[in-house]
Amino acid sequence: MMGPVLAACLLIILSTAWISQANEALCKKDGGVCSCNNNKNSVDCSSKRLTAIPSNIPVDTDRLVLQGNKLSSLPGMAFHGLTKLRQLYLSNNQLQALPIGVFDQLVNLTDLRLNRNQLTSLPPRVFDSLTKLTYLSLYNNQLKRVPEGAFDKLTELKTLKLDNNQLRSVPKEAFDNLQNIKDLRLEENPWDCSCRDILYLRNWIREKQGNVSNIEAAECAVGNKAVLDITEKDAASDCVSPNTTTAIPTSTTTPASVIYDDIHEIKVPQENFQKFLGYQEPDHLPTQPQCLMSISGYLGLMMSLMLTSAAILYVFHFLKKA
Ligand SMILES: *[C@@H]1O[C@H](CO)[C@@H](O)[C@H](O)[C@H]1NC(C)=O
Ligand SMILES: *[C@@H]1O[C@H](CO)[C@@H](O)[C@H](O)[C@H]1NC(C)=O
Ligand SMILES: *[C@@H]1O[C@H](CO)[C@@H](O)[C@H](O)[C@H]1NC(C)=O
């Protein structure tokens, strides 16, 4: 029994090694799709119709450009280990959600671009590790709300672009820790000026007017009034509590937890294949349990193939006779 198992395991290890070899080509000079500038530790994979992030991005990458592709989801571990990364461009993709913790290891990040995607929500505390961030663009998405405390750790942030979203309000204290903010884009959102919870934003804009660019451009969804100018009387309604999805009347919105779970389910075909082979991390060969699991997967597949062919042969045999 040992012989076939070992042979199968060897086969699996060889095939995963082959896949890992195939994945290794990141840069054009090695047959990959990305332009790499090794002196600048820069990897540019822009506008390549990518549906998945290339593997084997060097851990010392400083600038990673993935804009203008077809990324619709990111694996939770997509950027793990890239602790020296300073610039990450994910703009112009099809991202609908972000996995929890996706940026947690990017402690050196200064510039994060997520504009022109289809984000409807942000996971809780998704920017908490980005304490050096100075530039964050989220414009041209479909954000319905900002999670409580989302920007609390971004004390170095100078530019925040939230324009062209579906925001109706921001939670109380949302911008209070942005000590260095110079430019904040809020326009082209349907700010709901009839709800009392808009008064935090109004007061913040009034306080920062003149010191933070562009904040006066925020306008109420109804009546073309600037958020800056709304009165207590305008904003007299007690609307939905700010920690539920603010004033969204539809009950069809998916709860955040479901969205994040969905993300883990969506896998590009290659990843499925790798999973089938017991192959998880780009630079790890399968461990023994993974290998054993793969073998049982293989044997199961062989068995079902054999059964199917037997059934087909039987049917043919039967038809011939008849
Ligand atoms: C941040 O970047 C610097 C400079 O590249 C590097 O020396 C340092 O190790 C990075 N920080 C972490 C936590 O990796
Ligand atoms: C605005 O900036 C000026 C000059 O930098 C500073 O003196 C003032 O305290 C600032 N005001 C606010 C509300 O931050
Ligand atoms: C809103 O959040 C606060 C604290 O974050 C909590 O105490 C309160 O129960 C929440 N309200 C609702 C309606 O969930």
Provide structural commentary.
- This protein has 322 residues and is of the alpha/beta class.
- It has a domain at 73-253: Alpha-Beta Horseshoe (Leucine-rich repeat, LRR (right-handed beta-alpha superhelix)).
- It has helices at residues 2-24, 199-208, 256-265, 269-276, 288-321, and strands at 35-37, 42-44, 63-65, 87-89, 111-113, 135-137, 159-161, 183-185.
- An 8-stranded mixed beta sheet has the order 1-2-3-4-5-6-7-8, with no helix packed on it.
- α1 crosses α5.
- The relative contact order is 0.10.
- Mean pLDDT is 83; it is low at 245-287.
- The structure holds 2-acetamido-2-deoxy-beta-D-glucopyranose (3 copies).
- One 2-acetamido-2-deoxy-beta-D-glucopyranose binds at residues 83-84, 107-108.
Q: Summarize this, please?
A:
This protein is α/β, with parallel strands linked by helices. Helix content is 26%, strand content 7%. Strands 1-2-3-4-5-6-7-8 form an eight-stranded mixed sheet, with no helix packed on it.
